[in-house]
Write a structure and sequence with these properties.
By secondary structure, the protein is an alpha+beta fold. It folds into 2 domains: 52 residues, Helicase, Ruva Protein, domain 3 (Orthogonal Bundle); 205 residues, Tetrahydropterin Synthase, Chain A (2-Layer Sandwich), CATH 3.30.479.20. It is built from 13 helices and 10 strands. Strand 4 and strand 5 form a beta hairpin. It is elongated, with a radius of gyration of 31 Å. The protein starts with a helix and ends in an 8-residue tail after the last strand. One of its GO terms (biological process) is mitochondrial translational elongation. This is Elongation factor Ts, mitochondrial. Associates with the EF-Tu.GDP complex and induces the exchange of GDP to GTP. It remains bound to the aminoacyl-tRNA.EF-Tu.GTP complex up to the GTP hydrolysis stage on the ribosome.
Amino acid sequence: MAWSQSARKPMIGLLFRAQQHAARGYSYSAFQAHLSSSNVDQSATLLRRFSSEVPASEQMNLIKQLRERTSAPIKDVKSSLVSCNWDIDAAQKDLRKRGVVLAAKKSSRTAAEGLLAIAQDEKRAAVVELNCETDFVARNDVFQYLASSLAKLALSARDPGELVFPFGPDYLENLNVNLDHPKLSGETTVQSAVTEVAAMVGENVKFRRGFIMSTTAHGVVCSYMHTCPQPGLGRLAGLITLEAEDSNAPLDALQRVGKSIAMHIVATKPLFLSKELVSASAVENERDILRTQAESSGKSQMAMEKMVEGRLRKYFEEVVLLEQKYVVNDSTNIKSVLNDLSKEVGSKVTLGNFARMEVGEGVSKA
């Protein structure tokens, strides 16, 4: 009997499946009866079950397209395409459904890499930290878009009423965020957006923390981001507020000097704004350490006291912002820089607050 090419394919598939079931202890007649009892077309079922019906070149093209759409790992992309018979739209939907499960499996893994993102206006700035497991994912455009979106959301959220307001993930995670990206679209909660991106990139992704800094006086919020893959993103951030007593003082000069001081903060890691703000316990602890070191010198009591006081001044120069040597010009300190700025604008300029943030600081990488 002559068989057409179209009839031969389902028959070959049928015999192949019959052989498989026979090897498991099923007879051909039982297998055929099982197919007959199903309310589906047999040839369609057979064709749908065999991914080999899609040419290898087309399979690679579909994997590439779905990777570009979702940024999901190749293993998960291929798995969804195979389970959805290489229907790319169905596979994309399947990946989104599996996202919560995939993200949950990875949530216990350490996420110490990532990016800081900043958003600011004339009076306020918001910085957030979004973590992942590798710097490779930190370069992913979806990850970077989400980080920037979270910073903008933090800036637009209700005013906390504090000049410096640190916050954790619970401050934003239940708020809605509007996403407008080829791979992310629509309105969803921050928590859901983070989970979806985690599924796309195949790593543990966490929104860890953030802070908002603002000024209410005649002044500016100045920022500096270090190691920037693009504007508003980086691994290190420094922020300060500068305020002028005279409301007519030009703010552009404050902004120029303030950005430079923010860069200085990133480089020098100050702990306190002024000597007056160093706690008495911190000073006494440092004094005890210096006194013990001086006693080993074998010098007189008076000489040791002078040694302790000299080293204590050095300690202040290391940890107090206003006492630190200016990284741009180490012949002067930050206090002198502010005095020069005050003369330039014709009004006393004070440094209100400062902050420094670094990706992954304080996260145990063990």
